[in-house]
Amino acid sequence: MLRVISFFQEGCMACEEQDPINREVEEALGIQFEAINPLQERSYIDTYHLQVTPTVLLIKDDRVVERFEGVVHREQLEEAIRKHVS
């Protein structure tokens, strides 16, 4: 099973730009993203070596298979998800 985590911070302009893209991809592919603020759940920072927000991780079998730092465009994100769910 593929897990998609989108890390964000309050007041982050790029995060605000990424959010509607994530929602479009969720709707198009019927997949649920987990939205996590790593400043509120700090264990994620060390676990996934987070340096910037937004960061979107695709995790399969407890392993990060794709990592996007900064704003990722819908087409690129959809392509990556499709690659790992088929």
How would you sum up this structure, described in words?
- The protein is of the alpha+beta class.
- The chain has a single domain (2-85), classed as Glutaredoxin.
- It has helices at 13-29, 43-47, 74-85; strands at 2-7, 33-36, 55-60, 63-69.
- Strands 2-1-3-4 form a four-stranded mixed beta sheet, covered by helices on one side.
Essential attributes:
86 residues, alpha+beta, Glutaredoxin, 40% helix, 27% strand, globular
SSE layout:
Layout lengths: L1 E6 L5 H17 L3 E4 L6 H5 L7 E6 L2 E7 L4 H12 L1
Parallel strand pairs: 1-2
Antiparallel strand pairs: 1-3, 3-4
Helix pairs in contact: 1-3
Short description:
This protein has 86 residues and is an alpha+beta fold.
* Model regions low in confidence, pLDDT < 50 over at least 5 residues: none
N-C termini distance: 10 Å
Q: Which CATH class is shown?
A: Alpha Beta
The value of Rg in angstroms is 12 Å
